[in-house]
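> call design_seq(struct)
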C-alpha cells in the first residue's frame, strides 16, 4: 500500500474572530498574553456577590455566563 501525504490544513474562508477577555484579572491577562494571541479586555460590570445558599460550582457557572453575555452584547461575533 502506498502511503498518503498528510493534507495541508485548509485556510479559513472568513477572518478569524476577535478574542475578548471578559475579566480584569491580572493573572488571566498574563496567561492569555503568554499564548501569543491578540486579544482585548472588556470587563463587564456585574454583581459578583454570592447568593444565599449558592454552591461554589453554581456560583462559578452563573458568574461566567453573566460575564460572557454582558461582553458578547458589546462584541458580536467575538470569541
Amino acid at each position: 500500500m502506498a502511503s498518503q501525504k498528510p493534507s495541508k490544513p485548509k485556510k479559513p474562508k472568513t477572518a478569524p474572530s476577535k478574542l475578548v477577555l471578559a475579566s480584569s484579572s491580572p493573572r488571566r491577562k498574563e496567561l492569555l498574553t503568554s499564548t501569543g494571541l491578540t486579544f482585548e479586555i472588556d470587563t463587564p460590570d456585574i454583581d459578583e456577590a454570592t447568593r444565599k445558599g449558592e454552591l461554589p460550582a453554581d456560583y462559578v457557572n452563573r458568574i461566567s455566563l453573566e460575564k460572557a453575555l454582558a461582553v458578547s452584547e458589546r462584541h458580536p461575533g467575538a470569541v
